[in-house]
Amino acid sequence: LQIARYHHFAFVVISCALLGFGVGGLALALRGSWFRNRAEQVFRWGVLLFALSLPLCFTIGERIPLTVYFTPVVWIETLGWWCLFWLIHAIPFFLGGLAIGIALIMAGPRVHALYAASLVGSACGALAAVLLLSWIPANALLIPFAGAVLASALLVAPWSGTPSSLAFWGTTGGSLIALILVPILGVDLCFPLGIDEYKPLAYMQGLVKQGVAQH
Question: What is the pTM of this model?
């Protein structure tokens, strides 16, 4: 949002995170016994769905006709699109919060160690995002982050030879292969980032396409 739109839309990210994690906790609170009885299975598939939701929700969100400058006549329509954008991007946070909550439930007496790992992982993820932006474009961040989650999904789901295990490993492996193909096909082609037409960045990109400037 800072790169494609404007920096003051950061509150949308914060509210998406709070909403998604909150709804994940609410689902565990309302159906706690159901989740406990299927904890390992729900956790495995929840992690996989979280990984898949990162590129999917980003791609869907970038196709929503968002606008910052609009006339009062269309304010209801404009806010409607922004609300849809907000809800779509809350989905990964919901799945991530659900997976973390189930992991905490399964941790038992080792819950303190798992919570510490969650905090360390969050800090490393934030640091990695800042460092990676120095080397790759913002929309390409989907590749290492989704790839890391998919790789971790294989670690928490040992191969058992059952149809469920085959389906899980097949889906996860196929998703990893698809992510590897993204740089070959082109990140901007697979995960286009819609730059606001009024941002200076959009004007600069136009100059680059004309061959009169370099990025």
Answer: 0.85
